Amino acid sequence: MDAPNENILRALDDVRQGWIPTSIYSDPLVFEEEQRRLFSRTWQFLAHDSELPNSGDYVVRYVLNDSFIVARGEDRQVRVFLNVCRHRAGQVCRNESGNTKRFLCPYHAWSYKIDGSLASVPYHEEAYGGEEQLRKEDYGLYAPPRMRMFNGLIFVNLDPDAEPLEDYLGDYAKYLAFYFPAGPRHVEVRGPQRWRFGANWKIPAENFSGDTYHTPHTHASTGVIKLVSSAATTNRKAGINFAAGRGAGSTFRMEPGTLVERLRSIGYPDDHIERFAASLAPELRTMIEKDGVIPSASTLFPNFSLLHLWARIDDEGHLAPFTTMRLWRPISATETEISAWWVGDKDASEEFKEKSYKAYIMCFGTSGMFEQDDMDAWSTLTRMTRGYMSGSVHLHARMGMRSDGSQMREPLKDFSGPGVGHLGFNEFNQRRWLNFWAEHLEKDVPAPPVRTVVRPLRQAAE
Amino acid sequence: MEAAVASKGKMLPFDHPVHFAAHQFLVEEVYVQDRRDFDAWLSMLAPDVVYRVPVTSTFGAKPHKEGEMDHLTEDLYSLKMRIARLKTNMAWTESPPSRTRHFITNVCCYETERANEIRVLSAFLVFRTQGDYQGPDLIAGMRDDILRRSGDEMRLARRIVSLDESVLKTQNLAIFL
Asked: Is B138's Cβ below 8 Å from some Cβ in A?
């Protein structure tokens, strides 16, 4: 039966023991299996609702090599379609975003409405025999098998039998709502910045799920120049890593104080703090208030990551907090395209938005003083795994694990956040992510997203 | 981008002394950038400098979507911070430092409403490599600068960089355009 090759199956066993065969970062066969078994059935982020404020607004986004149009219809509904003409696979939308009433295929001029339905076929009568032979309602743009929104985040799943998004998120939904609340704090996004670099997509996804261990060294420069307080880079071992549902992430330890004092201390204005506090799930509020930690980076399996941080934005030492979301889109085993957005509070003052945006640009994205060094580490390690000898190496991913495989640190008993929490440096979350990865690579390839009925000629003749 | 050019003041002839001075400024600047003399570069910037690299994106029929998102949107404070970081010896991505070559051409100068400021458009191509492993990366685009004169001195008061790619193919913008 169809199964990944023996090397890959062995790699799945290895990662479950906390050993990462370097080949999973550069082997094209591994990437092929990921496309067939993992991206074919995991929930994939496409866009945020706030990117489509008006009827007719659209953005074009990708899942691997599938191009999707995300569009808001005349009825205000957001829909997703495959950007492929039903006649000869022309690209019906060639912009990255815009506002339109029609998508026109440049090849034979089939055109589609903003709701994806087929609007017109040239010479419909003469060429096709009209509606009797080619019913336009049967030839709208294909929709992905599943589409679901969570607090404005638009996800699709290419598996017709996909598990519901709610089940997939599990209790991670409460962390996701920290970055993207249902209200009364409303979110808007700016972006994306898009760029490609030479890293395997799993490395950033795994990093954002809980690698607090890299911060003191990789990002040491940001503490030296006081972009962030030096405690932010050196005191990461005081944070708690959380894991729930298909997501996991890390937190920052905050200075003592009430919730309001803590949020004020990182640059939130008072009017914002009210909305912020009212938007938190009770567990998250207790986590910030009682446990004294606030979410920083996290990843929703497989490749959607978020981050919340604050930075010094002027010579006077004012701090401004920001949130970012990013998608790690694999281009090949050794190349990833990043799409990164700034995430802001829609109801905040323009002044605060600009401060937060400035903090983001200084820290993350193409030019960010944190992200620059992350990307360098990730592309370097990808490159270093491409050798014949280096490709036979197993990397150590067993931090927090004894040699017999047992956990050195039990989950915190009194952790207030949803799911499990571990104090200090630990690769529990990364191993958990790698276990999800292994689980998916063992699964059968799901049913195809489109089951086109091709009527046999004979039957058609009858 | 074309619309912005159309709204400019009168173009200076190529043999105008101010055109020569602006061109010389740009050439001196790229030599400073390429030898990574960042303090000298900072001294060429006005205290109220605005330095932006917006994201290029195809919006509808328009080739560029302006004003939405930036790769860089800097003032003197943030530029100084970036340069201070490069000097920490812990900016790992620039260790070893990028070798860059900025090529500047198609220089056109326009009068502005202010007698001491001129608007300078130029095309650039940056060739970037690192060690024996990175690149060559190419970054192409247009600079839309405002140069401010004070006596014999000229400083960059504003730069808006229009990139010719929507998806950058260089690992990061740890270099200045």
From this structure: no
